Amino acid sequence: MSDKKIKAAKKVKPNCAQQDASPLAGADSEKRTMRVEDAVDILGISRAAAYNYARNGDLPVIRLGSRVLVLKAAFEKLFA
């Protein structure tokens, strides 16, 4: 292997000390959503009832592809 290739390979190493400037990165690493099954455990209702509430809009959810996730902030506001 030539010296140029070795130097180029060493040069590409990322700096792990730098943090992303995104507001979602860093200190606030707590998840902002939970699974419907987690909400079922908290509420003490059946899985089918939870999905019915989500469909009716009574349970605050977002859909990402085929996944249905409960928004924690909106869920907590229901009981505040």
Q: How is this structure best described in words?
A:
- The chain is an alpha+beta fold and 80 residues long.
- It has a single domain (3-78), classed as Arc Repressor Mutant, subunit A, CATH 1.10.10.
- 42% of the residues lie in helices and 15% in strands.
- The protein has 4 helices and 3 strands.
- It has helices spanning 3-11, 36-43, 47-56, 72-78, and strands spanning 33-35, 61-64, 67-71.
- A 3-stranded antiparallel beta sheet has the order 1-3-2.
- A hairpin with a 2-residue loop joins strand 2 (61-64) and strand 3 (67-71).
- It is globular, with a radius of gyration of 22 Å.
- The N and C termini lie far apart (65 Å).
- The mean pLDDT is 80.
Largest sheet: 3 strands, antiparallel
Instruction: Write down the Rg.
Output: 22 Å
Mean pLDDT, to the nearest integer, reads 80
The CATH topology is what?
A: Arc Repressor Mutant, subunit A
Q: Domains counted in the coordinates: how many?
A: 1
Query: Which range best describes the helical content: under 10%, 10-25%, 25-40%, 40-55%, 55-70% or over 70%?
Result: 40-55%
Spatial gap, N to C terminus: 65 Å
Backbone shape? globular
Run of helices and strands:
HEHHEEH
Number of helical elements: 4
Secondary-structure-derived class: alpha+beta
Count of strand segments: 3
Q: How is the largest sheet built, in terms of strand order?
A: 1-3-2
Q: Strand fraction band?
A: 15-25%
- The CATH class name reads Mainly Alpha
CATH architecture: Orthogonal Bundle
- Low-pLDDT ranges: none
